[in-house]
User: Fold this.
Amino acid sequence: MFELRRVTLMTNPLARLRPLRRAAFALLCLGAVVSASCSRKTSSTHTRKDEEPIRITASPRATASPSSTAPELPKLPEGLLYIDGPQVLARVKATEAAGVLVNVWASWCGPCKAEVPMLIELRKKFDNLELLFVSVDSPEKADAAKAFLDERAMMGRPGYLAQPPLGEFKEAMTPRWQGSLPATFLFDPTGKLRYWWGAQVFEHEITPILEGYLAGKNIDGEAHFKIRVGPGQP
Assistant:
């Protein structure tokens, strides 16, 4: 029986090729495994890169790739500057005042036009508070925003226009703000929001809050309202 098997292997040429086929097949499988492993590793690396959060900075090109063709923001009129959410907070933290009122307005907003003069006069009463006006007019409407500031003699200092997109700006003010106008935010020098008004505020409403804040009282909160009637109005 042993001799017969040996003869069969020696006389059948295909029998000699079978071990070679098995070896070649094994090498082919090994190559496929290595190739698949490399593919998975490459894909995983790109996935991690794609999942990195994109951070919007003062310049729209700061996070853009060298090949990006993202357009520049339109140039603003002289005396009007772009400002984003983090820059507002940095401006607040750099103040030497006891607190900062950030008023968000737009040139097409009627209640904003009625509120701004009151805030300017209020600033004279509370001289240890700083007042920062930020327009949310689109860059294409920046001329209207500058005209609004000029009419009210507010251009003694730089005027600000919220840099689009506005999502980050709104988030920096407070995630609870849905974008209603006008809106006014009281920050302390550490950048902490202490109180905010999500609509037009009247002097008799804002004055007690400011007085309490400056007196060191716990006034943290918000006035979230819809349409109200000011004093002496029908």
